[in-house]
Amino acid sequence: MGRKKSMVKLVLLRHGESVANQQNTYTGWSDVPLTAKGRAQAEQAGAQLAAQHIPFTAVHTSILQRAIVTADIVMDAIDQLYLPIHKSWRLNERHYGALRGMNKDHSRELFGQAQVAKWRRGYSDLPPLLAHTETDRKYAGLPASILTRGESLALAWQRVQPYYEDMVVPRLRRNENQLIVAHGSTLRALIKYLDQISDADIDKVEVGNGVPIIYTLDERLHVVHKELLGQ
Ligand SMILES: O=C(O)[C@@H](CO)OP(=O)(O)O
Fold first, then answer.
1. Quick check: 130 and 73 in contact, CB under 8 A?
2. Is the pLDDT of residue 8 over 70?
3. Cα–Cα distance, 44 to 77 (Å, whole number)
4. How many angstroms does the Cα of residue 110 sit away from the middle of ligand 1?
5. CA 179–ligand 1 middle distance (angstroms)
6. Can you give the pLDDT at residue 4?
7. Chain Cα centroid distance, residue 220
8. What keywords does the record list, in alphabetical order (predicted)?
9. Which value does ipTM take for this structure?
């Protein structure tokens, strides 16, 4: 009789629509709230996940309210409010530098379609940097090496990967299902890693607000199945 292969679930979820998403402005580390539509998207994601009956042992999110509130709504909907929730700046959205707050259509008028496409979806392209690093007290303890004046997706991955390796992988290895509620680019970086997408092809990957992505992983944590709920 062969040994039963263990399979574990890793669920990724981008927050519901934020005020900045609604206004079509660059967000990054801006700490903007969900819209009413964003809350409804989180509730719908929670209902879809509830139907999957996945018992998690931990939830991971950023220190930005749009992700934290989405995580809370989902934990309630799946009746797992008791779970530990780990919040880390490492799961924050990619820092959009001096673009933050700017309307995305306006940025295309200013810099051109091609440049904006690279900033938004390229792997190594750095947005124009802020003149100063973050002053918000929640970032006071950040390592000095972290560039908080703007990040490429590649730079964001450099701070997401250690979180994934230290906080998520050990739990997955113990066969514990994990839920990560984060942001478009943070999740694109993780999806790039899990799906082994090349630097060039990551520009085709989009992550929708409130669409749960369920990965089934084998004992080496390689992807054996991927499903987007409600798609
Ligand atoms: O503004 C942002 O921070 C992100 C996600 O909302 O936008 P984009 O899709 O342009 O990378």
1. no
2. yes
3. 9
4. 18
5. 21
6. 56
7. 23
8. Gluconeogenesis, Glycolysis, Isomerase
9. 0.96
* 45 contacts: CB under 8 Å, gap ≥ 6: 13, 16, 70, 74, 77, 210, 211, 212, 229, 230
pLDDT digits (tens, 9 = 90+) for 121-172: 999 999 999 998 888 888 988 877 777 899 999 999 999 999 999 999 999 9
Closest atom of ligand 1 to CA, residue 21? 6
pLDDT tens digits along 33-73: 999 999 999 999 999 999 999 999 999 999 999 999 999 99
Query: What mean pLDDT value characterizes the chain?
Result: 95
CA dihedral 175, 84, 86, 11 (to 10 degrees): 40
The residue annotated as part of the active site, out of 43, 53, 60, 93, is: 93
Q: Which atom of ligand 1 is nearest to the CA of 96?
A: 3
Give the pTM. Answer: 0.96
The answer to whether 128 and 95 have CB atoms below 8 angstroms apart is: no
**Which of 23, 25, 27 for mutating ligand 1's site (highest number of atoms within 8 Å of CB)?**
27
Asked if residue 58 lies in contact with residue 84, where contact means CB atoms within 8 angstroms, the answer is yes
Residue 205 and residue 190 in contact, taking contact as beta carbons nearer than 8 Å? no
Domains and CATH numbers, the chain: 8-221 (3.40.50.1240)
